[in-house]
Amino acid sequence: MKAILLTVILLALLDSACKTSIKPIPAPNGNENCQMIPINQRIIGQWKFNSNFTGSHQSRYSGTITFNQDGSLLDTDSLLSSGSKNAPVLKKLYNVKGDTLRLVTITSKDTTVAGGVVTTKECNQLVFGSWFYLTPSPGLTLTLIKP
């Protein structure tokens, strides 16, 4: 009788010890997934932009810009200089290294490079500040918003 009782107790203990509680792993929300994508990959595609760029190289404060995978830009709303009669724009390019975006405008006379460091990284929005163009311009910002 003791052997049967001991066997039943042992089986009950083993049964309770072997049960596992399965808890589903919560699905990551969109912010966690996009935060892992480097900016040089995430920036590819069409964005709406808002900027406070000023000066002769800026003709609009908002519009649409497309960052192509090959490093070229489609800038129909002229975020970057649209050139002048004496120096039409030949190419508009970009590159991203780490958290720095560089925008390049090549005209028949010269090449202009401006760059900014990302200050906000959200899934549908990137904000670049601390721009430099000849000299640092920390007040300038460029906000890119996915349409």
Count every beta strand, where a strand is a DSSP E run of 2 or more residues: 9
Give the helix/strand class: alpha+beta
Terminal CA distance reads: 76 Å
* SSE pattern, N- to C-terminal: HHHEEEEEEEEE
Name of the CATH first level: Mainly Beta
Looking at CATH, which topology would you report? Lipocalin
Main pleated sheet: 9 strands, antiparallel
Structural domains: how many: 1
Low-confidence stretches: 22-30, 55-60
Judging from the principal axes of the Cα atoms, what is the shape? elongated
Describe this structure in words.
Keywords: Signal. This protein is of the alpha+beta class. It has one domain: Beta Barrel (Lipocalin), CATH 2.40.128. The chain has helices at residues 2-18, 30-35, 39-42; strands spanning 45-51, 62-67, 73-74, 89-97, 100-107, 111-122, 125-133, 135-137, 142-145. Strands 1, 2, 3, 4, 5, 6, 7, 8 and 9 form a 9-stranded antiparallel beta sheet that branches. Strand 5 and strand 6 form a beta hairpin. The protein is elongated, with a radius of gyration of 28 Å. The relative contact order is 0.16.
